[in-house]
C-alpha cells in the first residue's frame, strides 16, 4: 500500500511539473512533511505541502534514481526517465541533507525533437559572423557562462552540430548526455562505475579529437582538463556557472587554472541570461551575448587584470540597444 500511495503522489507531482513546463522540482522534507515547489519561467512557485507520507515519496524517488534509499545523511546523485502521454523526459536527481530533513532537487531535461542550429540561436548577423570566425580556429577554449536553465547546453549542442557537419571529429564528456547529436561521439560520465572525467579524457585524447566538449567546469579537475586539452591543440567547449566574463575568469582561477595558461588558451566567453517574457507570453527569453577578441579582454590578457566591470556593463548595454543578438527559443 505504501509503494502504491507514494507512486501515485509522485506521478501526480511529476506530471504536474511537466505540464507546467517546470525546469526543476524542489522537495524539502522536515520530519514527515514535504514541501514541493516548481521552478517555472525562472521563478520558484509553491505547488503542494504534504503533511504526511513525505518520507515515502522521497524513498520512491531514490529508488527510481537507483540511490541508497536508507541514506539521508550524505549527498547523492542519480537519474531516471519518465514517460507521460507519449512524451519522455529525463529527470536528474540531487539529494542533500538539511537540518531536520532532506532536500531533493529534480532537474527536468526535456528531449527536444532535434537540436537547434547556430543559425537558430537568434544572433545578429554581425555576431553570427564573429561566432563563425571563432569556430574556424583550430584550438583554444570557448566558455558558455550562465546560471542553471539559461540554455548553455543548447548553445553548445548547436556549436557541436555545426562543427561535426564540417568534418570535425567532435567528442563530448557529459553528465548526463541530454540529447544525441548526429556526427558527435558523446560519452556519459558515470562516477560510480569508474567512468570519471579523468579516465574518460585520457582515453579521448587518444581518439584524435578535433573538438572536445566538457559539459561543465565544476571543480579543479575539470578546469585542469579543459585548459590542458586546449593546450594540446584542440578546440575545447565548456560551460561554467558565472554571471559574466569577469565571473567566468574568476571561477577558473579559483579552481586552480594557471593565469598564464588561461590567458594563452581562452578565446571567448559567451554569456547567457534569462529574462522574463512579457505579460501573457509563456516561456522564457534567453539572451546570448558574445564577448570575444582583444577588444573585450585586452586588459586582462596584457597585465593580468580581469575584464573591466565598466567595459562589461557597456557590452551588456549593447544588447539592450539591439547591437548584440538575443536567443528567445525555449530550452
UniProtKB/TrEMBL annotation:
UniProt-listed PROSITE patterns: T2SP_E (PS00662)
GO molecular function, one term: ATP hydrolysis activity
Any Gene Ontology CC annotation: plasma membrane
Keywords: ATP-binding, Nucleotide-binding
Pfam family, one: T2SSE
InterPro entries according to UniProt: AAA+_ATPase, P-loop_NTPase, T2SS/T4SS_dom
Family according to the record: Belongs to the GSP E family.
Name this polypeptide is given: Flp pilus assembly complex ATPase component TadA
Species per Swiss-Prot/TrEMBL record: Alicyclobacillus acidoterrestris (strain ATCC 49025 / DSM 3922 / CIP 106132 / NCIMB 13137 / GD3B)
Species lineage: Bacteria, Bacillati, Bacillota, Bacilli, Bacillales
